[in-house]
Design brief:
single chain, 70 residues, mainly alpha, 3 helices, elongated
């Protein structure tokens, strides 16, 4: 519906799109995908053979990035 509309109230459009995102649980699905890729990345890091201390530093940074305010 919003794709065809040329004149609209921007706030109303944002609210409508947010409702669609909420109904489709986009935030939840996005967080699941983030966790999936973070875990895959950590697994790959662990396979590099790098020293544990360096890996721990990277893992801490990854977790920081995950929970930071967006």
């Amino acid at each position: 519906q919003w794709l065809a509309v040329e004149k609209f109230d921007p706030e109303e459009k944002v609210k409508s799109v947010k409702k669609i995102f909420d109904r489709l649980q986009i935030k939840n699905e996005t967080e699941l995908q983030i966790d999936k890729y973070i875990n895959q990345g950590i697994e790959q890091l662990e396979q590099t053979g790098a020293p544990a201390k360096r890996l721990d530093t990277l893992k801490e940074f990854i977790q920081f990035l995950k929970v930071r305010d967006k």
